[in-house]
Design goal:
Radius of gyration: 15 Å
Largest sheet: 6 strands, parallel
Order of helices and strands: EHEEEEHEHEHE
Bound molecules: pyrazine-2-carboxylic acid, zinc ion
Number of strands: 8
Helix content: 10-25%
Distance between the termini: 19 Å
Structural class: alpha/beta
Strand order of the largest sheet: 5-2-1-6-7-8
Length: about 200
């Protein structure tokens, strides 16, 4: 069984959003067209409380894209984005939302969650692995935003959990912060992820 995992195709990651990824909206038609080819479709939704610790405004004196040390490791500070219940947290209106499952992440104030499988401590599970296993899904194709953050972390974790993982790059877009895209591609390849 093969699932399509659509990472964070939300308004705040599209042009005009709080953490806009260039061309983030351009991938929507392609992703919709891919959905029919899979046994299951999973959407992820970045879903932060308004005072989330990954937001620069939660740290007086800090500005967006600073990196700070959190108890679980280094953390990029982002502009406030994907606040629970806000229009920015909604999926892009053009995205086909007839998915099997929507999994939310990043909802605990003190810890970010780039990956759809584990929070940024790389230890606290989101529950997605259990869902996929109980449905007999062994292969994952990943698309969405952003290639170098949430898609990257999700793909590497999935490969580590034993899934056969492919990232379809033309159905992603990257933030590309300080070489993060080059590093993400190398890390995914190293982890055994197929970059298509
Ligand atoms: C993401 C930064 C912060 C992503 C989410 O979806 O890649 N990036 N939160
Ligand atoms: Zn986020």
């Amino acid at each position: 069984m093969h699932a399509l995992v659509v990472i964070d195709v939300q308004n705040d990651f599209c042009p005009g959003g709080a953490l806009a990824v260039a061309g983030g909206d351009a991938i929507v038609p392609r992703i919709n067209a891919m959905m029919v080819d899979f046994d299951a479709v999973i959407l992820t939704q970045d879903w932060h409380p308004a005072d989330h610790s990954s937001f620069a405004p939660s740290h007086p004196g800090r500005t967006p894209f600073d990196v700070i040390d959190m108890p679980y490791g280094p953390q990029v500070l982002w502009p406030a984005h994907c606040i629970q219940g806000s229009p920015g947290a909604d999926f892009h209106p053009g995205l086909d939302q007839s998915a099997d499952l929507i999994i939310r992440k990043g909802f605990r104030r003190g810890i970010d969650s780039y990956s759809a499988f584990f929070e940024n401590d790389h230890a606290t599970p989101t529950g997605l692995d259990g869902y996929l296993r109980s449905r007999g899904i062994t292969a994952l194709t990943m698309v969405g935003l952003a290639l170098d953050f949430c898609v990257n972390f999700s793909a590497v974790d999935a490969a580590g959990l034993g899934y056969d993982v492919t990232v379809v790059q033309e159905a992603t877009r990257a933030i590309d912060l300080d070489g993060s895209l080059t590093a993400a591609r190398a890390g995914m390849t190293q982890a055994g992820v197929t970059l298509a």
